[in-house]
UniProtKB/TrEMBL annotation:
<keyword id="KW-0698">rRNA processing</keyword>
<feature type="active site">
    <location>
        <position position="406"/>
    </location>
</feature>
<feature type="domain" description="TRAM">
    <location>
        <begin position="7"/>
        <end position="69"/>
    </location>
</feature>
<feature type="binding site">
    <location>
        <position position="314"/>
    </location>
    <ligand>
        <name>S-adenosyl-L-methionine</name>
    </ligand>
</feature>
<keyword id="KW-0808">Transferase</keyword>
<keyword id="KW-0004">4Fe-4S</keyword>
<dbReference type="InterPro" id="IPR010280">
    <property type="entry name" value="U5_MeTrfase_fam"/>
</dbReference>
<feature type="binding site">
    <location>
        <position position="88"/>
    </location>
    <ligand>
        <name>[4Fe-4S] cluster</name>
    </ligand>
</feature>
<protein>
    <recommendedName>
        <fullName>23S rRNA (uracil(1939)-C(5))-methyltransferase RlmD</fullName>
        <ecNumber>2.1.1.190</ecNumber>
    </recommendedName>
</protein>
<comment type="similarity">
    <text>Belongs to the class I-like SAM-binding methyltransferase superfamily. RNA M5U methyltransferase family. RlmD subfamily.</text>
</comment>
<dbReference type="InterPro" id="IPR030391">
    <property type="entry name" value="MeTrfase_TrmA_CS"/>
</dbReference>
<dbReference type="GO" id="GO:0070475">
    <property type="term" value="P:rRNA base methylation"/>
</dbReference>
<dbReference type="GO" id="GO:0003723">
    <property type="term" value="F:RNA binding"/>
</dbReference>
<dbReference type="GO" id="GO:0070041">
    <property type="term" value="F:rRNA (uridine-C5-)-methyltransferase activity"/>
</dbReference>
<dbReference type="Pfam" id="PF05958">
    <property type="entry name" value="tRNA_U5-meth_tr"/>
</dbReference>
<feature type="binding site">
    <location>
        <position position="170"/>
    </location>
    <ligand>
        <name>[4Fe-4S] cluster</name>
    </ligand>
</feature>
<feature type="binding site">
    <location>
        <position position="357"/>
    </location>
    <ligand>
        <name>S-adenosyl-L-methionine</name>
    </ligand>
</feature>
Length: 449
């Protein structure tokens, strides 16, 4: 039962404290309760807890509140590691143990499969996890010179509002970035163009000298600013790129021959990439994910495998070590060119690549789609899922499909089509913690005819 307490407000609004018990958790990390028959999403609360909260807004179908006191804490509650948790919007779950986080993500995936996909996996795979800290190797950091404070801010936006959070460090970014936010701020503050550098794109690869920074600048940099950026790269062993306009203008100013790559040692493959290319943000988890995907797909030496949304070849190259032939399909020409180059650099000769918008409406004309049969198919679509290409799964008639998903809702939608329209069984599914402390749910499912 919920009880209103008429105390003087010290919270966000001048509303009384309300006591309630939390029933469940949203993927955004808000506790869910019902007060006077209306749903309330309460920031900072966990399932099973009795809390006191204040309302921060009222909407037609639900209200929003913020915890003021934890009366009965959850056994899953932990002390957030980051000093900026609750202010910075990059993380929403640091107050929840990593074990509990992955359980909530698994529950979300299974609920979506059951209610949207109308299917339940015959086997639920053990979750794939890695270190929950210092894992993120790709990010876009905001930058802003604040006149009133006479200082520069570099990092992520605040949880509430659109302002940049005032951060000293970040516990989820790779240490080459997360431990140097104050150095970034000092650099921006020292520039003549401090007011026209709105963002810094970061990318971290394997090996030495593997951290690249792309400085977006809205006005031409002075010679002095360029010298400062060069010195910054030399001091911290960063690759320094500039972006004066669109993505096509990105160019490196230090060192002369930059190289970024990541490896799958278990498959003896290396993928070179550019700082703006899409790669998985969590390298240890990515290695485990590729291994699991190949185990589930189980390619035979005589198999022809179709790799859809292949990108730079994250799955294609390891698959080519095991199958007779792998056909990779990707929507961006530059990515396909780099995928071909990666195959050549790895001495892999049994791959072929096609440029195709897999979310288009004219797929029936694609030559790779006219092939009589693929033995196995791997799908790794973006958040929007693979609705358009799923419609052709019956025609392709592959014996096994492995689907890597970054959104449980679109995975469930596509599962419905595979199971109820194309005659596949949902053999198994499981979650993978690619983004610890966030609401992002990565999962993998395997289907068989």
């Amino acid at each position: 039962m919920s009880r209103h307490r008429n105390r003087k407000s010290k919270g966000v609004q001048n509303s009384p404290l309300v006591e309630t018990t939390i029933e469940s958790l949203t993927l955004e990390g808000q506790g869910v309760a019902h007060v006077d028959g209306k749903t309330v999403f309460i920031d900072g609360a966990l399932p099973g807890e009795t809390v006191e909260f204040r309302y921060t807004s009222h909407k037609q179908k639900h209200d929003i509140g913020k915890v003021e006191a934890i009366l009965t804490p959850s056994p899953d509650r932990v002390e957030p590691k980051c000093e900026h948790f609750g202010v910075c919007g990059a993380c929403s779950w640091q107050h929840l143990s990593l074990d509990a986080q992955i359980k909530h993500k698994q529950r979300a995936m299974l609920n979506n499969l059951k209610h949207i996909g109308k299917a339940e996996p015959e086997t639920v795979f053990a979750p794939l996890t890695a270190d929950g800290w210092a894992y993120r190797r790709k990010a876009r950091l905001g930058a802003k010179w604040v006149h009133k404070k006479q200082k520069a801010l570099v990092g992520f936006r605040e949880k509430e509002g659109g302002f940049l959070a005032e951060l000293n460090r970040c516990e989820i970014l790779h240490p080459s970035i997360g431990e140097h936010l104050l150095d970034f701020q000092a650099l921006i503050a020292s520039l003549d163009a401090r007011e026209s550098v709105p963002q810094i794109e970061v990318a971290v690869g394997d090996g030495d000298n593997a951290t690249a920074l792309i400085f977006r600048h809205m006005e031409e940099l002075s010679e002095g600013d360029t010298e400062k950026l060069l010195a910054f790269g030399q001091q911290f062993n960063y690759q320094i790129y500039l972006q004066p306009k669109g993505p096509e203008t990105v160019h490196c100013i230090y060192p002369e021959n930059p190289e970024l790559y990541y490896e799958h040692p278990q498959f003896n493959t290396r993928v070179n990439f550019m700082p703006l290319d899409f790669i998985q943000v969590n390298q240890p988890l990515n290695r485990a994910m590729v291994t699991r995907a190949l185990e589930l797909l189980a390619p035979e030496p005589t198999d022809t495998v179709l790799d859809l949304f292949c990108g730079l070849g994250n799955f294609t190259l390891p698959l080519a070590r095991m199958a007779a032939q792998v056909i990779g399909v990707e929507g961006e020409q530059t990515m396909v060119e780099r995928a071909r180059a990666a195959a050549h650099a790895n001495g892999i000769l049994n791959t072929d690549y096609h440029v195709c918008n897999l979310m288009g409406d004219k797929l029936q004309h694609e030559p790779w789609l006219k092939k009589n049969r693929y033995d196995k198919i791997l799908l790794d679509p973006p958040r929007a899922g693979a609705k358009e290409i799923i419609a052709y799964m019956g025609k392709l008639n592959a014996g096994r499909i492995v689907y890597v998903s970054c959104d449980p809702a679109t995975l469930a939608r596509d599962t419905y089509e595979l199971v109820h329209e194309h005659g596949y069984r949902l053999v198994g599914a499981g979650v993978m913690d690619m983004f610890p402390h966030t609401s992002h749910v990565e999962s993998i499912a395997v289907f068989e005819k």
